Amino acid sequence: MSAAEHLMKSRFRGYLPVVIDVETGGFNPKTDALLEIAAVLLDFDDNGELIPIATHHAHVEPFAGANIEQAALDFNGIKPDHPLRGAVPEGEALRDIFRAVRKAQKDAGCQRSVLVGHNATFDHNFMMAAAERAGLKRNPFHPFVTFDTTSLSAVALGQTVLIKACQAAGIPFDQNEAHSAVYDTERTAELFCWIVNQWQHLGGWPR
Asked: What's the whole-model pTM score?
């Protein structure tokens, strides 16, 4: 195991942080459709800096009987029936992401993965509900622990909105690209890494 991998294993008490963002057809994870999901894997570089290393993404077919609110589609701009969307069943989407997460978790020597998200409970609830519907047994994510960049940003930057937190941290953010799962996940990953690295630079966590 490399020094960077050992650092990941020890830094978060044996947990592997994985940044997740979902786009949905509403606010209820039991009844509303999961439409898009993205995951960003993280690792420490040779200088001990936490960095994003890979993005996994899928457009998701609404499950049978799923509710989709027009207001949600107006917000995220998704057209669920678009023939070029390339959507896959939610079980397939999550199975592929979980496979990549389990490999990263094993490589880092971590015992479990933890969802990192901006308003993380929302993303966690939708992901867990979809995994339950699909009957996925090998879910690498902790059933209730999350790392919420909304709270972390409030402490570190005095901001809670993603775009404002990114701007305060000097991370470029294009409002026109927002509400795409890939874009929001990658910006959230940069924000989480910035906060963790800044805390390290200030001496907040001894190696």
From this structure: 0.94
